[in-house]
Amino acid sequence: xxxxxxxxxxxxxxxxxxLLAALAPLLFRHxxxxxxxxxxxxxxxxxxPEQALALSGITDSTSVFDDPDVWAEQLRTQRLIxxxxxRRKLPGTLRIDLIETQPVALVRTPELRxxxxxxxxxxxxxxxTDLDLPVIVPGATFDDDSIADERTARLVHGLLAxxxxxxxxxxxxxxxxxxxxxGLRFVLxxxxxxxxxxxxxxxxxxxxxxxxxxxxxxVDEPDAAGTTAYDRLTRVDARxxxxxxxxxxxxxxxx
Length: 255
Fold this sequence. Notes:
By secondary structure, this protein is an alpha/beta fold.
């Protein structure tokens, strides 16, 4: 009869493997074979990969068996990085996977600068990046932590409420500002220069009314010039409970 039972042998082997796995980083960290030779960076659009590498703290003296959570946490402290993960690819490669913080609007400072959903300035080079985003007007001011003033933040949050309700509608917005008499004013790209007035903050009922009205106007019978009521839209005021005021240019009639 064997001195040790099979379950005990399996348990001892598993414990040994666990111990070796725990000791491996300590044993291999100082071996030249596991020095980092290549770093792959993915998920970047606004942040240059070489800048992401510099921010991580990874150098040519780094070992792939150093703690990757340290590099990931260092990257997460950057405003332009929403999340980061660093993975090993033995023997000498690290892979940095990033999720960038997305800009949601441009503000005037007086030059145009991008801000995120929390109305924080983002370190993005506007001149070198194609940013097709709504503009918050007029100019914004920022505190020492580059967070926008309360008014600008409120306009950003209003834009986000529209986006959460209907992404296509938010994508048609070119400008956001305060409306005379209260509420928010959205200038649309399509129909060109049309105004959308919403309560502040925009509520689900008002937004649903607007989307339904737009859908109805798009399928309206075209006039003599081939334009629908949607094409001729100049203003929609949805600031009032259970009422929607729509203004369009006159339809053309056949001669």
